[in-house]
UniProtKB/TrEMBL annotation:
SMART domains: HATPase_c, HisKA, PAS. SUPFAM superfamilies: ATPase domain of HSP90 chaperone/DNA topoisomerase II/histidine kinase (SSF55874), Homodimeric domain of signal transducing histidine kinase (SSF47384), PYP-like sensor domain (PAS domain) (SSF55785). One of its GO terms (biological process) is regulation of DNA-templated transcription. It comes from the Bacteria. This is histidine kinase.
Length: 682
């Protein structure tokens, strides 16, 4: 759109205004730098003086302590290593006892002590061009005042070094600021010269575009009066007309034929854009009885926080095999693209496609386009092209096809075809080779994992099943030994026989549970299941232990859902039996089962099984769902498969199960939460 108007900010008047603003900004920056420099130096100077005074005061105090301990010590000899510091000693009447203190410093000290009767302090003494830092420390026990002084210049070396460094940094900042201002000014000057050059040749360019049958119009999306903000060569390209065409959006839309209007209503009127830029062949009425074919390209852009729509119209001729707009599209599109006629003949391709495939493309011009692809995909490409061509109105289609690149490697390309427009179909592609290869690798990995899981389940089933018969024999004969020889042998033999019988029983129970675990999840024939009835069946199976332990089970109304009735019954049975097994001594078990919709997912029910037993520490929240994991091996019997079986049943139904670790320690017991997918009717 730079050819339709010259930005106001590039005029001579605006350039002078920008120059003044740039100069003002530069002066402001210089002032800020100067102010910052002097402010920092003042702060550093005050800090250095305070630090020097504090150091000298501390020195005087330490020397006073040494004098109290050793009255004959030579103080000046002690501070000789500290260059520039002089020490003297005064009596209570401020008369010199030892060392040398200039009289004018004694006078300043006398005035200061009268105003500030402190035991120790420091002060600045200024006489002519000389500035001294003086510190004193009173020694009442000796009726003495220890005085230490030094020229201020001796203690300000660090400050001088700092001010030199800051001055160098200030000069560098000033140089950068001025250089940046000069660079910006040069850029503005070049933009101004370029705008002036464009303004001189704008009319000539507009005439050239008019001869080529090109027009540009634009308008804001939120326009109230429909007035065009740009109308280059509109309506001149329509030719002579007796009608008075006003610079309004409605004048342009009213000249579109009904079919063209229906195709462009979404982006141009309803502001619904499938892409940021669209292109289409349209018919525009040039007078009452004639229409003309144009190629329309429209795009939406943002300027000054307002949305604008710009439309480019290019006049076409009936005898053109491939319109200039489409040739321009193929030449400038960054994606691999081809142009194919209704007979499937390749007419053109983009530079990006040539870069991908190589120069052999030139041998395929005028040949059937499907020769681009691998033999296995040629029929798919031909069928897609025919289905697109046979449509009455222009449409689009998508397909993933393989071809050979310039290095003779297989590449997977996702093609998006649109058309036909005046007998021409255009297809653009994106290289999805990496995605397809990764998807194939993932598919192979999933197949291997599925086969491995099936093999493991089959192995567990066969192993568990085949172990049943020899285990029955072991159990039967050990029980027969116990029955026949109990009491006839010694007590140790009876104990060994009991161990064998008990081990056989536990092994039988473990194998039975393992066999049940292997079978779980193989039934995918789901039906509608009422969870209330499933829970009643589980309670019926546990009727004996519920009665013995005086357990109570409460629940609200449970939903119906799609699932395996036997698996869900086993799920409730395991959770309830665990809650009863791991009860607190002397406390009747109470299990409360609640259900509510699972808010995050929406398509699931969330069940909660809460008991008042001994509870589970949160650190074991993940471990308890693994195979053969038991937390109380010595206190309670079991195989460690119960919760693993629960997890497998829940995952078979598409849900998850976990231990509620947010339950406070003060509230004994455990809470298991699991989700189950709701039925389709719900």
């Amino acid at each position: 759109m730079f050819m339709t108007s010259i930005e106001q900010t590039l005029s001579r008047r605006s350039l002078a205004k920008l120059r003044k603003r740039l100069a003002l900004l530069t002066m402001t920056g210089v002032f800020v730098l100067l102010f910052s420099f002097f402010f920092i130096q003042k702060t550093l100077y005050d800090s250095a003086v305070d630090q020097a005074s504090s150091q000298l005061e501390a020195t005087a105090y330490r020397l006073g302590l040494m004098l109290l301990q050793h009255s004959t010590v030579d103080l000046q000899k002690i501070v000789d290593d500290n260059s520039g510091v002089t020490v003297g000693l005064l009596n209570g009447q401020l008369e010199q006892v030892s060392g040398y203190i200039p009289p004018h410093l004694i006078g300043d000290l006398a005035e200061y002590i009268v105003k500030q009767p402190a035991d120790r302090d420091s002060l600045l003494c200024v006489h002519g061009q000389q500035v001294m830092i003086l510190a004193y420390s009173k020694l009442p026990d000796l009726d003495r005042i220890l005085v230490a002084y030094t020229p201020r210049s001796k203690l300000m070396e660090n400050w001088r070094q700092a001010i030199i460094l800051h001055a160098l940094l200030f000069v560098m900042a000033m140089t950068i600021l001025c250089g940046l201002a000069i660079w910006l000014w040069q850029r503005l000057k070049r933009q101004h010269l370029r705008a002036a050059h464009l303004a001189e040749h704008f009319s000539e360019t507009e005439n050239t575009l008019s001869e080529c049958g090109c027009a540009v119009i634009s308008w804001p999306v939120d326009t109230a009066d429909g007035k065009l903000v740009t109308q280059m060569n509109w309506p001149e390209i329509l030719g002579p007309s007796n009608e008075n065409i006003k610079p309004l959006l409605t004048e342009f839309l009213d000249r579109l034929t009904p079919s063209s209007m229906a195709r462009l209503r979404g982006p141009l009127i309803d502001n619904v854009w499938p892409d940021a830029r669209i292109g289409a062949m349209v018919d525009i009425r040039i007078d009452a009885n004639h229409t003309q074919r144009f190629y329309l390209m429209a795009h939406r852009y943002l300027e000054n926080e307002r949305d604008f729509i710009s439309v480019l119209l290019l006049e076409t001729a009936a005898q053109q095999e491939l319109c200039n707009p489409f040739e321009t599209y193929l030449r400038h599109t960054p994606e691999p693209s081809i142009a194919v006629d209704t007979d499937g003949i390749l007419h053109g391709f983009s530079p990006a496609f040539e870069e991908l495939v190589g120069t052999r493309l030139y041998n395929l011009i005028g040949q059937p386009f499907f020769k681009l692809f691998e033999p296995e995909d040629q029929q798919i490409a031909l069928a897609s092209s025919r289905s697109l061509t046979e449509k009455r109105d222009s449409g689009d289609t998508k397909q993933i096809l393989r071809l050979r690149d310039r290095n003779d490697n297989i590449r997977w390309l996702s093609w998006h075809a649109i058309g036909p427009f005046d007998g021409m179909t255009f297809s653009s592609a994106r290289d999805v080779t990496e995605f397809v290869e990764n998807a194939n690798k993932l598919r192979d990995t999933l197949d291997q994992l599925k086969r491995s899981n099936e093999d493991l389940e089959q192995f567990a089933y066969v192993a568990s099943h085949d172990l049943q018969q020899p285990l029955r024999m072991v159990a039967s004969y050990t029980q027969l030994l116990k029955k026949r020889y109990a009491g006839t042998l010694d007590q140790e033999a009876d104990e060994y026989i009991d161990y064998a019988v008990d081990g056989a029983k536990r092994m039988h129970k473990l194998i039975s549970h393992l066999l049940e675990y292997a079978k779980t999840g193989t039934n995918e024939d789901f039906s509608t299941v009422d969870c209330n009835q499933v829970l009643n069946e589980a309670q019926a199976d546990l009727k004996t232990i519920i009665s013995q332990e005086h357990a109570t089970i409460t629940h609200n109304e449970l939903p119906s859902l799609m699932g395996d009735r036997i698996g869900l019954s086993r799920l409730f049975q395991n959770l309830v039996s665990n809650a009863i097994k791991y009860r607190r001594p002397g406390v009747p078990p109470h299990i409360d089962i609640t259900v509510e919709p699972d808010t995050p997912s929406g398509d699931f029910w969330r069940f909660s099984v809460r008991d008042n037993g001994i509870g589970i520490h949160p650190e074991h929240a993940q471990r308890i769902f693994r195979l053969f994991q038991r937390l109380h091996k010595d206190e309670f019997s079991g195989t460690g498969l119960g919760l693993s079986l629960c997890r497998k049943i829940v995952e078979q139904h598409g849900g998850k199960i976990w231990l509620d670790t947010t339950r406070p320690i003060s509230d004994p017991g455990a809470t298991f939460i699991f989700t189950l997918r709701a039925s389709r009717s719900e």
